[in-house]
Design a protein that fits this description.
Elements: H1 8-19, E1 28-29, E2 47-59, E3 64-75, E4 79-85, E5 89-95, E6 98-99, E7 101-105, E8 109-113, E9 123-132, E10 145-148, E11 151-154, E12 175-184, E13 188-190, E14 194-201, E15 204-215, E16 222-225, E17 227-233, E18 239-245, H2 252-259, H3 262-273, E19 281-285, H4 313-321, E20 329-331, H5 337-354, H6 360-370, H7 393-410, H8 412-425, E21 429-431, H9 433-444, H10 449-457, H11 464-469, H12 485-489, E22 496-497, E23 500-501
Parallel strand pairs: 1-4, 2-12, 18-19, 20-21
Antiparallel strand pairs: 2-3, 3-9, 4-8, 5-6, 5-9, 7-8, 10-11, 11-16, 12-15, 13-16, 14-15, 17-18, 22-23
């Protein structure tokens, strides 16, 4: 805490200021960050967005994107100015219909000063007209826009939005979306949610997508290229739309053999996590050179080379599990990443059991046994790994091990009640690791602070007594590798993000 000695003259001025009625108090700029210690400049303060309406035109040959973004928001403080996170070139900004002045600052800040200051608690409409070449823009030394031979793709974590639309770029501010994209005939535009309509005119086709449930900005995606599209429905009637780049080459068969099982896997996951939270489902595989997948809401992104060794349904399980753990319930801060990754990895363990390739218990035993006490693996704390280790393998494997330890501590009945109850308790909202611990204690009726501390927060391997108590240590004997291990390990790079390595 910083203490300052105030000079008598300044004190008198401060007293005078306090005497001014609140209505006349000066309005202040919104903060340039939402307050996440991992990424201090991500998101913004002073307002909350409820809806994004994006009308875009994209030219695959030149990677030129032009658009008009309309944001519906509400102020959370009196504002003299506010920021959006954005990288493309802005031509005009209007706030509540009137032209606003704007400038850029920092790595990705668009600072907007409305003609008239904004009062707290009022609805605001912001319109931004823009254009640019997304692949030419970098922030922090990398790009989250992937150029492909036939177009481009926006998909990355923890950030991708700034390359294609202006936003409050942090999971704390979720909103609904309408994404309308004009592309040359013969080219497809893929996004989240349901395809509302397509229409063609004068050589161009417009694709209209809608996400009608709150969605974090990093989970919004856009892919333009030449795709083969397949459609279907799950057993419960959810429409499925999958898209495969026409030039996946030798990976095409394995990619389809995996992703065409999306409906079956989603239906299976409802048995553990409760009803599927959205009205659309699918996946897409563009011909990018990346090596990761991403749980983009309702329609995960997959890289072709993840299918280099054949089909991998375990990867599909991981990304679909995120629809509940990560998308429906989003993290409050990026330090809460364990709730996303630990449970998505644990879903792969349950799938392994379902496929007869090793039980969750055998996988937990194997993870515990295969990392000796001096392995740096144990120094990563999944409950708060730090930005440099946010996507470290320990967040996944040690994270899932913590889930199994919880299961063994509280018993299957309480454990599976928690798995289903959690996405319903915080549906379409945000929650933290602390919220999860409280919820698990509430459902199980057991104090769990020591267990969470041991498995999620200690930078060391849990000792054999703790491991035996959580039933994940088999003594000194060698633990054999479960059959599913290689398929699960093949998804370890799911968040190694090209030029932005996490």
């Amino acid at each position: 805490m910083h203490r300052r000695i105030i000079a008598p003259g300044a004190l008198a001025a401060a007293v005078l200021l306090l005497a001014i009625p609140a209505s006349a108090a000066p309005r202040s700029p919104g903060a340039p960050g939402i307050g996440d210690p991992y990424y201090p400049a991500y998101g913004n303060g002073g307002y909350d967005v409820s809806h994004y309406d994006l009308r875009l035109k994209y030219q695959p040959a030149t990677d030129e994107l032009e658009g008009t973004a309309t944001l519906l928001a509400r102020t959370t403080q009196d504002l003299s100015s506010f920021n959006l996170d954005f990288l493309l070139d802005v031509g005009e900004v209007r706030v509540n219909g009137a032209k606003a002045s704007f400038r850029t600052s920092g790595e990705h800040e668009l600072e907007i000063t409305p003609k008239t200051p904004l009062a707290k608690g009022t609805p605001v409409t912001v319109v931004v007209r823009y254009r640019g070449v997304p692949s030419s823009k970098k922030a922090y030394g990398f790009t989250s826009w992937h150029r492909t031979p036939d177009g481009g793709v926006a998909a990355n974590e923890p950030e991708a939005a700034a390359w294609w639309f202006p936003s409050n770029d942090h999971p704390l501010d979720k909103a609904t979306y309408d994404v309308s994209v004009l592309v040359p005939d013969g080219t497809q535009a893929i996004s989240n949610g349901t395809l509302q309509s397509t229409s063609s005119r004068l050589g161009w086709t417009r694709w209209n997508w809608r996400s009608d449930k709150p969605q974090a900005t990093y989970l919004a995606t856009l892919a333009v290229g030449k795709f083969d599209i397949t459609t279907g429905t799950t057993e419960s009637g959810i429409p499925i739309l999958n898209a495969y780049s026409k030039d996946l080459g030798q990976h095409a068969g394995a990619a389809r053999a995996s992703i065409e099982r999306t409906g079956e896997i989603a239906d299976w996951l409802t048995g553990y996590f409760g009803p599927y939270p959205y009205n659309a489902l699918g996946g897409y595989v563009p011909n990018t050179t990346t090596g990761y997948a991403l749980e983009t809401q309702t329609r995960p992104y997959y890289s072709p080379r993840q299918f280099a060794n054949g089909s991998n349904t375990s990867l599909v399980v991981h990304e679909l599990a995120h629809q509940w753990y990560g998308d429906d319930v989003s993290l409050k801060g990026w330090k809460d990443i364990w709730i996303n990754e630990g449970f998505a990895r644990y879903a792969q363990w349950l799938w392994s059991e379902h496929e007869g390739e090793g039980t969750a218990q055998e996988l937990a035993d194997y993870v515990y046994a295969s990392h000796p006490a001096d392995d740096p693996f144990w120094t990563v704390r999944p409950g708060d790994p730090g930005p440099e280790n946010q996507f470290d393998i320990a967040v996944y494997d040690r994270g899932a091990l913590a889930v199994q330890a919880l299961r063994n501590e509280i018993g299957d009945e309480a454990f599976f009640a928690i798995l289903k109850g959690w996405p319903q308790k915080y549906a379409h909202g945000n929650a933290s690791v602390a919220d999860f611990q409280r919820y698990a204690e509430e459902v199980s009726g057991k104090p769990l602070a020591a267990l969470f501390d041991t498995w999620l927060f200690q930078p060391s391997k849990p000792g054999v007594p703790a491991a035996r108590a959580a039933a994940v240590a088999k003594g000194a004997g060698k633990v054999s590798q479960p059959r599913s291990w290689k398929k699960i390990a093949a998804t370890n790079g799911v968040h190694e993000h090209g030029e932005h390595e996490h």
